[in-house]
Amino acid sequence: MGPVGRADGWTKVQGRAVYAADVRLPGMLYGAVVRSPHPHARILRVRSEAARAVPGVWAILTGADVRYGTYGRRVRDMPVLAREVVRFAGERVAAVAAESLPAARQAAALVEVDYEPLPAVLNPQEALQPGAPRVHEVAWQYPGAVVGPDDPSNLQSRGVWQHGEDVEEALARCAYVFDETYEIPPAHQGYLEPHACVAWAKPEGVVEVWASNKSPHRLRAQLAACLGVPAERIRVMPVYVGGDFGGKGSPMDVPVAVALSVATGRPLKLVVEYEEDLTAANPRHGSTVRIRLGVDGEGRMRALDVRAWVNGGAYAAFKPVEHVNLNGFAEAGNTYRIPAVRIESLIAYTHTVPRGHMRSPGSLEANFAVESTVDVAARALGLDPLEFRLRNVLRAGDRGTLGEPWVEMRGEEVLRALAGALEEGEGAAGTRREEEAGWARGVGVALYCRAAHAGETEVALQPRPDGSVVAWVPFPDQGGGQHTVVRNVVCKELGLLPAAVEVQQVDTDELAADSGVGGSRVTLTASAAASRACQQLRRRLEEEGLRGLGVQEAVAELARRRPAERVRGRLSVEEELWLNSVCAQAARVRVDRETGQVRVEELVTVLDVAEILHPPSHRAQVEGGVVMGLGSALLEEVVVEGGRVVSSNLHEYRLPSVADVPTLRLILVPGGKGWGPYGVKPVGEMTNVAVAAAVANAVADAVGIRVRRLPISAEEVYRLLRAQEARP
Amino acid sequence: MSGASVELWVNGDRVRARVSGGEFLAEFLREGLGLVGTKVGCGVGVCGLCTVWMDGRLVSSCLVPAVVAAGRQVWTVEGLVALAEGRVADPPPGLPPGRLVRVVQRAFVECEGLQCGICTPGQLWAACALLQEEPDPPEERLGEFLAGNLCRCTGYQGILRAVRAASREGRLAGG
Question: Which of 38-77 (A) contact B at CB < 8 A?
Answer without folding.
Answer: 55-56
